[in-house]
Design brief:
The chain has 373 residues and is an alpha/beta fold. It contains 15 helices and 8 strands. About 2% of the residues have low confidence.
Length: 373
Amino acid sequence: MKVTIPNLGNLASIAGKSLLSNLGHEVILPPSNTKRTLDLGVRYAPEYCCLPLKIVLGNFIEALEKGADTIIMVGGWGPCRFGYYAEIQRMILKSLGYKFEMIVLEVPRGNLIRILRYVNLLRNKQSLSSLINAGEIAWSKVVAIEELEKEALRIRPRENIKGETSRILKKGLSLIDNTNSIGEIERIKQQIIDDFNKIKVKKNKELIKVKLVGEFYVALEPFVNHNIEEKLGYLGVEVERGVSIKPWITSVFSLNFLKVGYQKEKNPIEKAANPYLPQSVGGEGQPTVGNVVLASEKGFDGAIQVVPFTCMPEIVAETVNKKVSEDLDFPVLTLIFDEQTGEEGLNTRLEAFIDLLKSKKYDRHLTARRLAS
């Protein structure tokens, strides 16, 4: 099989490719997302569909053009339309005349047979030990990538030489991509962290700290969010992600969905959201609210919510966050992305929001000094 997967930041092109290639698949990745990718998706997808569906559709068209014959896509359930993406994309691609097979990986609610079928499809007749080894290597890459990206978010707003953090991160990701040893992945990760620590930084600079929350794909795919993490870093803002692929993967493999009648305890993010949004509305809607509440409690200066246009769970979260922001006196900026989103308009809104946060921080310091005197 000539297998392809959609782009998702550095995770798909490195960890996803590693897993599939180590299982003996020929992996044909789509090119990095570009305007052509977006244009293809917009041309063939229904107008009302959200931006992630359109971009991923563009990924598949470009990968099929390169010779892929099998598409691996994830699915979902609940009120979010994500669960329909794969079938809509399949129908569109078939109508365009492409010949391919699509494997849709989604959590089967209580269906163990389906899980075993997924495993067999991915295993590609490899031994169980080979499957486990491939999974461990891919997981090590996921962990290393997210840890390095997290460290880059901390260092970037402090660097003296603009772009040095991104340059070192890019080097580390390339090294991780080109190794197949868990020990070597760990060594590379530590070496890149050491390199980060050698970067000359601005002394005694008090930074604005922002929580980045919102829809999973828009938050993690730089092309879609217009490299918002780098933009904020260069504005002197330390960003902490409220979205990560690690919890998503671990929740799938915890197998709680096999336990009939099992009532899982709410995690800290869900508990934080509970006074405002006590149940899931699909997607990252409830976690978005919970992360905003926690960010306020932990002393962040504000939060930025990134949303694909027409995303129902995030529209609910946006509405609820207005109440959260009012109750907690905590600024939240919502940015909605579609194919019409412009760079200059986005930059202006970010700069204005950061100026607001700096002003509020300065006022808090003045108030604290008056109270102390």
